[in-house]
Model the fold of this input.
Amino acid sequence: MIKIFFYILLILFPITTNAISLQEIRDNPTRFKYIYADNRGDGYVDISSINVIRYAPPYYVINSSLYLVDYSKGAIAQINSTYFYDYSQNVTSTLEKSKNKAEFTNKILKYAGIKHKINSMPTYDFSGNVLSTTPYSGNLTTPALLSPAYTAAMFSFYNSYNEYFNPPDKHQKF
Done:
């Protein structure tokens, strides 16, 4: 009986140690950087989760965790992602290569030098109880400009290299 209890405890241990509550996010502004807001919620990057995987200019790869607080659903999604950067395709490089404003705008809206993949996405209630764990296949996608994933990628790059990958939005000074 004790052996079964021990195995159950071992299985549940990783779930409980990674749980996050809204209070923990709010009480630790030096760990959780507030980077995003819209009409449904807020976004925070866990600074301690930022990890440079590849530094081979113009290519970079960084892992980090984005916490999206959804007030309408009373939930927090922990989005553990890998960001892939191509500096030769960033906004500044694309502007230099574009023939006119329309071409530049069209290119940037399609691809601003960043792709990402979601590695996992556990979801918690505001008290830190696990609601779900969502497995992901790791499909590479291009985040929309100024979306939570794009903003998290921008902050992760800035935090790693103390420079902006793309020029920041006027509300995006890290």
Observations:
- Helices lie at 2-17, 22-27, 91-97, 101-110, 148-161.
- Residues 115 and 141 are 5 Å apart (CA to CA).
- Residues 20-161 form one domain.
- The longest helix spans residues 2-17.
